[in-house]
Amino acid sequence: MFVFVGLSVAGLTVLAVSFFIKPENTHEHSYVWSTVQDANCQHDGIMEGKCSCGDKITKILPQTDHNFVVVDEPAATCEHEGKRMEKCSFCNLVKTGSEQTIPQTGHKWNEGHIELQPDCTNPGRKTCTCEYCHTQQQFTIDALGHDVDEVNWVIDKDPTFFENGSKSHHCKRQGCQFKKDITPIDKLELTNPEVTYNIKLTKTNGENLPTSTTPTIVVKDAAGQEKGRTDGFNYSITLPSNQMFYVTVSNLQAGYTAQESYTLTPDVTDVKIKIPAAPIEFVTETHGRYAIGSVIVDDPIKVLGRNSGEDYETSLGKLLKQYKGLFINTYFNTCPACNAEMPYFKNAYNATSRYGEKYSDEIAVVMINVQDHDDAIRNKKNSENIPMMMAARDVWLSAHFRNISGDYYPTSIWIDCEGVIVGSYTGAIYNFTNYFDILLDRYYTIKGKTRPSDKVQTTASATKIYVVEPKKRRIV
Questions:
Q1: At a CB cut-off of 8 Å and minimum separation 6, what does 474 contact?
Q2: Half-sphere exposure of 26 toward its Cβ, with a 13 Å CA cutoff?
Q3: By CB count within 10 A, which of 249, 308, 336, 421 is most buried?
Q4: What pLDDT shows up at residue 280?
Q5: Cα distance between residue 214 and residue 220, in whole Å
Q6: Rounded to an integer, what distance in angstroms lies between the CA atom of residue 310 and that of residue 40?
Q7: What is the pLDDT of residues 23-38, one digit of tens each?
Q8: β-strands 363-369, 325-331: how paired?
Q9: For the chain, what percent of residues have pLDDT higher than 90?
Q10: What is the C-alpha to C-alpha distance for residues 463 and 440, in angstroms, rounded to an integer?
Q11: Is 145 left (phi over 0), alpha (psi -120 to 50) or beta?
Q12: What is the pLDDT of residue 259?
């Protein structure tokens, strides 16, 4: 260390320099700095230095400019707009001209839960949840539209020798009834002017009929004119192929009954007329598994009116007490053969017998749907103006008659006034009055009464009957 010393002698200044040695234990400050107060846009900052010896010194940090950062206040949501601005992080001052509107984000819906699947013509429905705000909302799923098989034809009605058939392209979606390009199929050509029919009587179980009596087989034309008969169990007869004929069987052993008439068409030349395997008097209640010759039980049914308020409960037994016979028709809405016979069915139901009896007053006719639900049944009743009784969807009731129908439709079953199933036919029937007359004839026979003859009409239409087997197949 050194010190300057000034002396003044006789007007002169003498500068004397004095030197000395620093002691070895002399302390030198070493400051550690820390921020006491940050400088910002509002005030200066302060830093403090502190030595290990306890000495402190400070220095000033100059005031800063505003520190503007971008913020969203409020942030945009699914349903509300937000605001974006530049804002000082120190003093919250909003920079002039920096504010702008942020559009609402809108909901971000997840895949959702499907509550109703769409079909070809009806939309579906699903509920989705927003991934942002968890709001739930229902959405409509567009109808699928028809997926029509444009390549393969579906035979809606097979042609016969007497009527044209029809084919169309159907929608491939299960349960859809839509079809397009409905095209007629020419009726079959009659290449042979005559057909030989081989008629054979047989039991439903394949056994031969009892021979205690000899049955009589009679063949008539559509006008009721007899064309041939034989006493026996087999009959071959050659007839013109451009006409339709039917067969009746009589003189069977007591208790046995045949289908009251059987149509002959050139489609089938080997004709088997099946007789129940056991006499009617030996058949008792079958507890829901009916067959020809069964005695029905008092099955309850719900009859649908045109509106739900018109529905009513009844039973097969109650109907048999009110009417002279019961006629069951099993069907489903999209069955081609069922729909083909419907106009004839309605006309027959509203017709009058040659004895002057109105069939709708005498015979209880019940249509039993094997597939569709009540709304579809009611819609068919309304749209087609069907006057017959139509039962509500009843799986148990339709199953009762499945032994007879064999899952082929339509199947018509006629039950006499004592509840005995006396006949059935699977296929489209084009003259129901013949079967209604059968039931009325049986009623008067069973009750020992005679049908009035003063109103008998000589109309050939009363005996005509046309039948077409129900078929539906795809042509590839």
A1: 152, 153, 154, 155
A2: 6
A3: 421
A4: 41
A5: 20
A6: 86
A7: 666 788 888 988 888 8
A8: parallel
A9: 30
A10: 14
A11: left
A12: 56
CA distance 422 to 433: 16
DSSP string, 361-399: HHEEEEEEESS--HHHHHHHHHHTT--SEEBPP-HHHHH
Among 451, 450, 224, 445, smallest CA distance to 355 is for 451
Range 21-29 contact pairs with CB under 8 angstroms and sequence separation of 24 or more: 27/53, 29/53, 29/55
CB 56 within 8 A of CB 50: yes
DSSP letter, residue 280:
G
pLDDT of residue 473: 26
**Residue ranges for the chain with pLDDT beneath 70:** 1-25, 161-162, 190-192, 204-206, 254-261, 274-289, 453-476
Task: Check residue 28 and report its DSSP letter.
Answer: -
Which residue, 265, 256, 247, 323, is CA-closest to 293?
A: 256
Written as one string, the DSSP assignment of 146-160 is --B-SSSEEEEE---
**Residues 108, 113, 117: CA angle, nearest 5 degrees:** 120
pLDDT at 257: 65
Tokens 């009417």 appear where?
Answer: 323
- Buried residues in 420-430 as b, exposed as e (16+ CB within 10 A): bbbbbbbbbbb
**3-state secondary structure at position 207:** coil
**Cβ neighbour number for residue 453 with a 10 Å cutoff:** 8
CATH class for the region spanning 285-465:
alpha beta
- pTM for the full model? 0.41
Alpha carbon 51 to chain centroid, angstroms: 91
Q: Please give the pLDDT value at position 145.
A: 92
